[in-house]
Specification:
The protein is mainly alpha-helical. The chain has two domains: about 60 residues; about 180 residues, f41 fragment of flagellin, N-terminal domain. The chain is built from six helices and two strands; from the N terminus they run αααβαβαα. The chain has a two-stranded antiparallel ribbon with strand order 1-2. The chain is rod-shaped, with a radius of gyration of 40 Å.
């Protein structure tokens, strides 16, 4: 059975409790609307925050991985340019050797041809050295992914050396028809060797392009996954703002009414 009391106003206490809950919800909604984030502190969604942070970390790693892969492609493009130049130089050397191998031209100056042939060989070595194609076979790895294992997180690149020694041209000359014919055979084999290295470099570029494509796709999907967890639904929060504003006004009105009810007990003492 209800009773009148001036010591404890249960209706007022209840209204204050409800008003406090409404105020907490209003503050949370305002924080989400102002930040655009559903999770502004760990208490909002501790488990969701941990998952969202993992996605964000993965995106950061993948973004750097894409940049690493592009740097690797740039390095390979430099090598590829040098290989194309060396291919042109081999073509020129083959032309000179063919001229020197011909015995039909009595006025042919093979000394001049041989000097240019030697100059071409020197240029091949110079360009190979500039592009780091001289010496031991080149190999390096490029980190492209957020995977935990090295095998899945990086791309291994390797290609053979290309200089006159690797092409087996370092001892050739075209000062006689016989030597020129020998040089033609060696140049044919060198062109095949060069093609093998060009294939290695081209395959590496294509592999990095595929790795970039996958990493970019992962960036998009992981960003979307993080967004679904971390970002606020602005339409939902706008509706919540309206609801909490109405509840705040009605709660204040209810609290005022509850406080007024207690004062009405005084009328019994008149």
């Amino acid at each position: 059975m209800g009773s009148f009391s001036v010591v404890n106003n249960i209706n007022s206490v209840n209204a204050q409790a409800k008003l406090y809950q409404t105020n907490v919800g209003l503050q949370q909604t305002l924080a989400r609307l102002s930040s655009g984030l559903r999770i502004n502190q760990s208490a909002d969604d501790a488990a969701g925050l941990a998952v969202a942070n993992k996605y964000r970390s993965d995106v950061a790693i993948l973004t750097v991985g894409v940049r690493n892969a592009n740097d690797g492609i740039s390095r390979l493009q430099i090598v590829d340019g040098a290989l194309n130049n060396i291919s042109n130089l081999l073509d020129r050397a083959a032309v000179l050797a063919s001229q020197s191998a011909s015995q039909g031209n009595a006025g042919l100056n093979r000394s001049v041809l041989n000097d240019e042939f030697a100059s071409v060989m020197s240029e091949i070595n110079r360009e190979a050295s500039v592009a780091n194609l001289a010496g031991a076979a080149t190999s390096f790895t490029i980190f492209v992914s957020s995977e935990s294992t090295a095998a899945n997180g990086q791309v291994s690149i390797a290609y053979n050396q290309i200089d006159t020694t690797a092409l087996a041209l370092n001892t050739n000359s075209i000062d006689t028809p016989g030597n020129a014919q020998t040089a033609i055979t060696a140049l044919s084999a060198a062109i095949t060797t060069l093609g093998t290295v060009q294939g290695q470099v081209g395959s590496a570029q294509n592999r990095l392009q595929f790795a970039i494509s996958l990493a970019q796709s992962q960036v998009v999907n992981k960003t979307a996954a993080e967004s679904r967890i971390r970002d606020a639904n602005m339409a939902e929060e706008s509706a919540n703002l309206t609801r909490y504003n109405i509840l705040t006004q009605s709660g204040l009105a209810s609290l005022a009414q509850a406080n007024q009810a207690s004062s009405s007990v005084l009328s019994l003492l008149r």
